Amino acid sequence: MAEDLVLERCDLELEANGRDHHTADLCREKLVVRRGQPFRLTLHFEGRNYEAGVDSLTFCAVTGPAPSEDAGTKARFGLSDAVEEGAWVATVVDQQNSALSLQLRTPASSPIGLYRLSLEASTGYQGSSFVLGHFTLLFNAWCPADAVYLDSDEERREYVLTQQGFIYQGSARFIKSIPWNFGQFEDGILDICLMLLDVNPKFLRDAGRDCSRRSSPVYVGRVVSAMVNCNDDQGVLLGRWDNNYGDGISPMFWIGSVDILRRWKNNGCQRVKYGQCWVFAAVACTVLRCLGVPTRAVTNYNSAHDQNSNLLIEYFRNEFGEIQSDKSEMIWNFHCWVESWMTRPDLQPGYEGWQALDPTPQEKSEGTYCCGPVPVRAIKVGDLSTKYDAPFVFAEVNADVVDWIRQDDGSMHKSINHSLVVGQKISTKSVGRDEREDITHTYKYPEGSAEEREAFTRANHQNKLADKEETGVAMRIRAGQGMNRGSDFDVFAHITNNTAEDHTGCLLLCARTVSYNGILGPECGTKDLLNFSLEPFSEKSIPLRVLYEKYCDCLTESNLIKVRGLFVEPAANSYLLAERDIYLENPEIKIRILGEPKQNRKLVAEVSLWNPLPVPLSGCTFTVEGAGLTQEQKTVEIPDPVEVGEEVKVRVDLLPLNAGRHKLVVNFESDRLKAVKGFRNVIVNTS
């Protein structure tokens, strides 16, 4: 009788599997593979090798604390010559001396997560069990049978593998790209993402069911949406919007997700202070890309927050046009969420593809602060019955705005305001390029088209279906030149009279600082023309000067100033309102790479900034990070004040470089100039 098989060791073939599964950065010390795709391992036996007619090998793969074959979290399978779709399979690839090379394939619908792989080897009636090791299973955008399959290799690289990108801020008329280090393959991030799944309330309530449902990207996306905020759970980020961040870190300070996720983990899953919409979205993008779900960050300009689902945002203003009601329904200058690519077997055909997910805590969904996934296609066609949270997302890009202005007798008069259109310039980073892609057309049909009207009819959006009130007098706010932080500048109320009549009244102009979510600060410029007249078929441009000394102490880190014009004609009982958000440009951070970028060579980055303000800067710091360029965030403090017109310059050592494209991201902070961002691409040649 043959002697028992004795396993000496198991080689998980980290390098080969990492290369084949696009997980090389994750496979340095442990096996990480993607589902539905074969991976290799080699069994080394003591004494003799496996004999097909003599020995029996049975593998067991389990995930979660209560593995079950019925739940799909446990699989037992032997060696097989045939590949059976939808089943765990092990096949022999090669056999030499005492080494047995195998290929294992997981079903494309397996739950993702950490697995333990064991082997039962029996010879005759005797057998032994061996633990082969642990491996992590991810979603697989390269596998046609996987729910997250993307058929474009360029898109897979952008939305799964790329560790750097941009978040778009500013305003619809001045879109500002903010560099971000997603860093989904940085040291420890995968373990943190798995920990995030394991502390979610659904896991704590029923771990077996939660682990089983991790086979679905719809389910995982919804869990991530809830766990990136901490409103209901041990989530990652605490949101704050009042500009008081002294006991934490300002949302504008962050330049990447890695530092945030590491802080959360290192502090025992305690919430990190603080986040706002783009931080929530960027962290969700990191987690979902890390787990293998193709994901991109998206910014919607003039984004509505409709609490009562009537698709209407109403502003109540006093006679000067100032908003009086302390309502939470607001138009955010911009709002960020993410889109993830997946099938929707729970919905009717046609709703696969990009799904909107919003981790910013705004409204509860099924009792939890999360939002989505909802098919972007359903938003476009106005199908508000679609899971999950279609009415809220539809309102974010389609709500109507009505302004009510109180008259002297206390009555409210509906004003005309064509300057604010909800849902504009919806933006994401282009595939393979550092440029913005406008994806508004994926959410909305062209304005005025028959398809748009059909979508509004399906959504019962009566406000949009009503005929718009037209007027012969129009006003818009125009920006002048030199809209830079630290400078004085002019804005203009441009008024046109397209009628054959004179129009006389008072023109009130006002500039106020504003946060990106619409919260107004103090006035920083006003002008009242009490006897303003427009001749027939004429136009006028009225300047308003805004001084640095007026806005310097109240400008938020959003760098936004809201300019409002109100033209009141008492004789005609007419109110004409126009508003525009002005973005003030920060100075440029210059980044030089000293030396030629070559593989395994250490480089130095030289980072500099010029002080554009009419006052010195003190408490200056540069913070630098980049996937593959720094081990962790590096902060360099400047001990001396930076005088007016002076340039401050520091040098930062970088890691020995791997081949490929990297992005160094920099943030500058000081007492009077905050959240200045910059980046530099570092392309490393293999020669």
What report would you give on this structure?
- Residues 269-361 form the Transglutaminase-like domain.
- Its EC number is 2.3.2.13, 3.5.1.44.
- Its main location: membrane.
- Keywords: Acyltransferase, Calcium, Cell membrane, Chromosome, Cytoplasm, Extracellular matrix, GTP-binding, Hydrolase, Membrane, Metal-binding, Mitochondrion, Nucleotide-binding, Nucleus, Protease, Secreted, Transferase.
- It comes from Physeter macrocephalus (Sperm whale).
- The protein has 687 residues and is of the alpha+beta class.
- The protein folds into four domains: 6-138, Immunoglobulins (Immunoglobulin-like); 163-463, Transglutaminase-like (Coagulation Factor XIII, Chain A, domain 2); 470-583, Immunoglobulin-like, CATH 2.60.40; 589-684, Sandwich (Immunoglobulin-like).
- The chain contains 14 helices and 38 strands.
- The strands form eleven sheets. Strands 20-17-16-14-23-24 form a six-stranded antiparallel β-sheet, sandwiched between helices. It has a five-stranded mixed β-sheet with strand order 2-9-8-4-5, covered by helices on one side.
- Strand 10 and strand 11 form a beta hairpin.
- The longest helix has 14 residues, at 277-290.
- The chain is elongated.
- It starts with 5 loop residues before the first strand and ends with a strand.
- The mean pLDDT is 92.
